[in-house]
Amino acid sequence: MIQLQQIHRIFKVGDQQVHALNDLSLTINGGEYLSIMGPSGSGKSTLLNLIGLLDQPTSGEYTFNNQKVTTLSDDQKAVLRRDQIGFIFQFFHLVPRLTAIENIELPMVLAGIPSTERRTRVSRILDAVGLAERAHHKPEQLSGGQQQRVAIARATIMQPSVLLADEPTGNLDSASGNDVVEILEALNQQGITLIIVTHDAALGARAMREIKMIDGRIIDDGHQKPR
Amino acid sequence: MLIKDLIKLTSCAVIAQRMRSFLTSLGIAIGVAAVVLLTSIGDGMQRFVMAEFTQFGTNLIAINPGKTTTHGASIGIYGTERPLTIDDAAALEKLRDVEAVVPLVQGNAEVESTHRQRRTTVYGISGDMPHAYRVEVALGRYFINEDPSTPRAVAVLGSKLRSELFGSRNPLEQRIRIGGERYRIIGVFAPKGQILGVDLDDAVYIPAARAQEMFNRDSLVEIDLLYRETADVDEVVASIARLLSARHGRDDVTITTQQQMLDVLGSVLAILTFAVAALGSISLLVGSVGIFTIMTIAVNERTSEIGLLRALGGKRQQVMAIFLGEAIILATLGGLLGLVIGVGGAQLLTLLFPALPVHISWNYLIAAETLAIVIGVIAGVWPARRAAKLNPVDALRSE
Ligand SMILES: Nc1ncnc2c1ncn2[C@@H]1O[C@H](COP(=O)(O)OP(=O)(O)OP(=O)(O)O)[C@@H](O)[C@H]1O
Ligand SMILES: [Mg+2]
């Protein structure tokens, strides 16, 4: 469960202050499917980075799985990210010199999981994202949609409780974008909390809960729609 | 992160940039090769010189007239010191643990055989000389058991002088003239070679008292003394000092042990080798600048990858370890390449110039490789720290 209370995030650029998140409060329950929409510069990515423990709020309280995370050390947050949070980016962020398998393995390598266990986990997940034959391909040998599926496999290999996707289809054609969304939704069906930032209204509308942001505030917290 | 995976991850990055990695490593390789080559020559020289000095054995003591202070100046204020004499040498023979005593008189004289003549060094010595200096008599015999007070006019030739004077003819029992006096040749020494430029083979050896007469002297240049291997050097030195003080009425000789000379010489040569190694290390320094540059570029190029690693749960130290690991791999590979080049070069040198004493020492090989790795660490630390300190959000956003 994610709980944000009166979060402010202020960037200082020269003598100017940018209020990227302004007194934002938000509670997300385990297993929810959430979309965040809003105009460019409204603070969507900032919010996502904050939820993903990559960024610190300037003020406010953040509780993740009943744990106050604003006071955690850098390493403790890294471990939480590794075990509990999966990131999916618009530009895939695969390591170009590593194969699909090696990219997917990365979080497990960082966690110190031995290679035998990694192999079994990876082969299972490769099937799930439909990339079994592409296992030993480098990113440059994969299509955009395939690359994003590798990224999803990597984000979920540690079986996190939350999946954060910042415009996951922003760089894909509609067909492969659709594939990606279906995989993400299937993961949500299995219980993972899914938060998608998007400019695509159709994609945003698929979520059970739609959040609209403007100027660092939530102006519309949608409502639980029936599935 | 498991060490195995860290190595795999870092070597993968090094291999991905083959050409760049090779050129960077080459900088280190050249430095290591220089260190290996220079120290091999330095070490070879050191061994060569030490071998020259120890060919007479290591338990020799030299006694010279006059007292040398640590500053090297002779103390002459009490008047001239008493000279060392053949009687002193005879007295020293009776000391405990003394195996051989060689009184030494040295000069130059004309040596004539029936056919040829040659100006050469004349050594006046005693019957103990072959034993003390470890020289073999190749032909004939040596003037052992001579009465030192009335020595006969017999001479032993150095091997080179023998061939100069007699070629391949048998010189034994031949008459020669040394400084105008007639001598009978009773033996020839086996070749001993040069020692620091002094050719012991191009010399003639006669009884010390004879040489004193020839050069019109009462004194000896030096007394060399061989002590038993099992004896305590300090005790031997003390007993020599006591005996000579008693005989001379005061302490007016300088006693130098071979071991002292070897120690001083050894440390001077070791310092020289070390200095040469330090010189070679300067090129290693240049190599380290290469690693620093390449790692700084790598961190800039892979900023978004660093952001990704942090997003995937990588700790700062892990990011640091990955980049530091790359620097270390570059330095280690460069070092190994340098060892191969250096050892190959040293062997090539021995092939091309057999006279050049080259000795490849494991110690210096290990030291050079270790130094290369240390340099890799030092050169890699700053870029790696910079990578570790990056803000993950900013890093992720960079292209
Ligand atoms: N590191 C930063 N330094 C300064 N200002 C920043 C920084 N990151 C974000 N901002 C500012 O904060 C505001 C919110 O940015 P954010 O990236 O969250 O917007 P966004 O909603 O994701 O926009 P987009 O839809 O274009 O991705 C913007 O005004 C942006 O300029
Ligand atoms: Mg954004």
Bound molecules: adenosine-5'-triphosphate, magnesium ion
Radius of gyration of chain B (CA) equals 33 Å
Mean pLDDT of chain A: 92
Strand line-up of the largest beta sheet of chain B? 2-3-10-5-7-6
Brief summary:
The complex is a heterodimer of chains A (227) and B (399). Chain A is of the alpha/beta class.
Describe it for me?
The complex is a heterodimer of chains A (227) and B (399). In chain A, 35% of the residues lie in helices and 27% in strands. In chain A, helix 6 links the parallel strand 7 and strand 8. Chain A is α/β, with parallel strands linked by helices. Chain A is globular, with a radius of gyration of 17 Å. Chain B is α+β, with helices and mostly antiparallel strands. Chain B has 2 domains: 3-52 and 264-397, no CATH class; 81-251, no CATH class. Chain B is built from 12 helices and 12 strands. Chain B has helices at 3-16, 18-54, 86-93, 129-133, 159-166, 208-214, 233-248, 258-301, 303-311, 316-352, 362-389, 392-397, and strands at 60-65, 98-112, 117-125, 137-140, 154-157, 175-178, 181-189, 194-195, 198-199, 203-207, 222-227, 253-257. In chain B, strand 2 and strand 3 (117-125) form a beta hairpin. The two termini of chain B are 27 Å apart. The mean pLDDT of chain B is 88. The chains are: A alpha/beta (227), B alpha+beta (399). The A-B interface holds A 49, 52, 54-55, 74-75, 78-83, 87, 89, 93, 95, 97-98, 102, 106-107, 109-112, 114-115, 154, 158 and B 1-2, 4-5, 9, 12-13, 16, 304-305, 307-318, 392-393, 396. Bound molecules: adenosine-5'-triphosphate and magnesium ion. Magnesium ion binds at residues 44-45, 166 of chain A.
